[in-house]
Amino acid sequence: MAYKIDETMCTACGTCIDECPVSAISPGDVYVIDAESCTECGSCAAVCPVEAISPEA
Q1: 33 class by beta-carbon count within 10 Å (0-12 exposed, 13-18 middle, 19+ buried)
Q2: CB burial class (10 A; 0-12, 13-18, 19+) of residue 50?
Q3: What is each CA distance from 40 to 22, 29, in whole angstroms?
Q4: Which contacts (CB < 8 Å, 24+ apart) does range 42-51 have?
Q5: pLDDT digits (tens, 9 = 90+) for 5-38
Q6: Number of domains in the chain
Q7: What is the CATH number of the domain that holds 48?
Q8: Residue 28 DSSP class
Q9: pTM (2 decimals)?
Q10: For a disulfide at 10, which of 17, 27, 46, 52, Cβ 3.0-4.6 Å?
C-alpha cells in the first residue's frame, strides 16, 4: 500500500522530497507521491511536519 499526501494539509515545504529514497515524490503547489514508485518505507510520513502523509486506505 503506497503512501499519499493529503492535499488539504500539504504546505509544500519540501521536507518529504529529500527523504524519499526512490524519488517517488513530485514537487508542486501540493506534492504528489507516485504510487507505482513508492516502496512504502514511510520515510516521508515520518518527517512531514504537518502529518499530511499517510498510507493509502
Answers
A1: buried
A2: exposed
A3: 10, 23
A4: 42/3, 43/19, 44/3, 44/16, 44/19, 44/20, 45/3, 45/16, 46/19, 47/15, 47/16, 47/19, 48/15, 48/16, 49/11, 49/13, 49/15, 50/9, 50/10, 50/11, 50/13, 51/9
A5: 999 999 999 999 999 999 999 999 999 999 999 9
A6: 1
A7: 3.30.70.20
A8: S
A9: 0.91
A10: 52
Output the nine-digit C-alpha cell for 6. Answer: 493529503
- Give the domain extent around 44: 3-55
Confidence of residue 1 (pLDDT cuts 50, 70, 90): confident
- Look at the block and give the residue holding cell 510520513: 45
